[in-house]
Amino acid sequence: MSHPVANTVVTPAKPNYFKRLLSNMRRRPALYLMSLPAFVLIIIFSYVPMAGVLMAFQDYSVEGGLFGSAWIGFENFKLFFNSYYAKNVILNTFLISLYSLGVGFLMPIIFSLLVNTIKVKWAGKFIKTVSYIPYFISTVIMVSLITDFFNVHTGIVNKALGLFNIPPKDFLNEANVFYSLFVWTDLWQAMGWSSIIYLSVLGGVPQDLYDAAKLDGANKMKVLRFIELPQLYPTVSVLLVLALGSLLSVGFEKIFLLQTPLNSGRSEVISTYVYKLGVLAQDYGFGTAVGLFNSVVSFVLLVLANLLVRRISDYSLW
Amino acid sequence: MRFNSDVPFNAVVWTLMVVIMLLWLIPLLYVFSAAFSSADAILSGDMLFIPRGWNIEGFKLIFQYDGFGRSYLNTILYCMLTLAVSMPLTLCAAYPLSRGDFMAKKFIMVVYTITLFFGGGLVPTYLLIRNLHLYNSVLALVLPGVSVWNIIIVRSYFNTRIPKELQEAANIDGCGDFAFFLRIAVPLSSPILIVIGLYALVGQWNSYFGAMIFLDDRAKYPLQLLLRELLLSSDAAAHVNSWAGINPADQLTALMAMKYGTIIISAVPLILLYAFIQKYFIRGVMVGSLKG
Lengths: 318, 292
Prior knowledge:
The structure holds two protein chains of two kinds. By secondary structure, chain A is an all-alpha fold. Chain A has two domains: 4-61, no CATH class; 78-315, MetI-like (MetI-like fold, Orthogonal Bundle), CATH 1.10.3720. Chain A has 16 helices and two strands. Chain A has helices at residues 4-10, 14-27, 29-52, 65-68, 75-82, 86-117, 121-132, 139-149, 156-163, 178-202, 207-215, 220-245, 252-258, 264-267, 270-280, 284-315, and strands spanning 58-59, 70-71. A two-stranded antiparallel ribbon of chain A has the order 1-2. Chain B folds into two domains: 1-55, no CATH class; 59-292, MetI-like (MetI-like fold, Orthogonal Bundle). Chain B has helices at residues 7-35, 39-44, 57-62, 68-97, 105-117, 122-131, 139-142, 148-161, 164-172, 177-188, 190-206, 209-214, 223-232, 248-290. The two termini of chain B are 40 Å apart. The interface between A and B is large, with 88 and 86 residues.
């Protein structure tokens, strides 16, 4: 630790700060001690792996470690971009993410606005409760249910389609329906739960706004459009930025379990690819490089999303 | 007065709601009634939404599955451990950040916020766990789980709920920061704790990924990893010791009987828990959503 008095002589501006910091530490030691455990854990488990991304530029070997492995520049990245899988994997990641965002973000908003208009108390409560339940079903169980329900021979989905004379479809192995299978079953699980936050905002809409609308002769549709929806905007824009930021971290857990050899053309995404090559095949440098590519793209998306939302929110209603 | 202008709107809303309820309830009802039906009725398609051949054979068979009981206990243990580690850590980290006169506040917030935007990714994290000798240890599932989001949420809660004046008055009365934290801040934080606690609990209960890459020992498997084997792998029957000599067709029937019972046993505790704390949870969400 530098001596405060010695510092005073060299640079007159800084010591003031350190002096203040030291006296702050002396006066409020508890605050510093309380911060310590979480701070240390975050340094270890978030920052050390960040330094580990250097492996992306190495022919990493476990024996050599980060300091003893050969540096190979952008070889790993070249290898990835030139590989047969790269285009597919990147495209799948983007398309599934966007599809998922579109459906998974819009539907809960619409759902909460509509449920909120139901004034029969028990019915509203019942609908909300039922819609929350699937959230508590784990990914493993969910995938097991999907494989049952969409089974080409015995699944109830194909039986239901049979009632309308639609021939059975092998949803689980058909590459072309993979995106939809993933996105809409996700919606089944998450729609109710995601709407909780919107419903809680709608529950707090001031009564005088409704009274004023009534005086003006607004019907339910108008109330929804011009009073309730604008009340959701702040929450929506915050959640949208967050959703865009985590856009490319599409649900590894579920996609991995839904993969079959027949649908892999559409179901291989960056995270599953990284797991297979970086962890299972122990190609650490390569896996890190692909993961790093994903992180950098996510980061850029987040920054863009933030700019975009800020711009839109300046120009539009709220 | 526009008398009837809401009628078409209401009709559309109610129709949509009925459709949504059907789509949401049918799978749930199917699972529930399959758990109490005979395997034959499920396989033949006789059973739809009402249990056929009422029995609870499936529930009994589950406990013959090698390691099921243990993995269930493991999951309960891991969940309690997660809560015991992450809740105190989050509170302790969040409180100082809510105090305006804590001088390290800005620096720590910058350090935390960066982690929200950028991370090392899977492979470096995996190697770190191995280098720390946490591979095959429960700690690998618990320690990295300190959530910066949660710290930020609790911090803004403290910001709005615990006025500076109250804390200053306490300080003048000789109540130190830590005593104030324990006696005033922690008790006041229960609404928000229920929200982040439920998220942490559901997350740990339902995840298999961490366990899949960090745990090697079958005896340490949490419920979800065992379920993955039981529900999704083709050689699940090999793990029921007493089935060694039984023919494959009968094994398949027995597995079918087990399947839905397993689903009920593993998902229902969470649903019940939520039913009990729903009131507090919703209140917590409201409090939390008031300020970002």
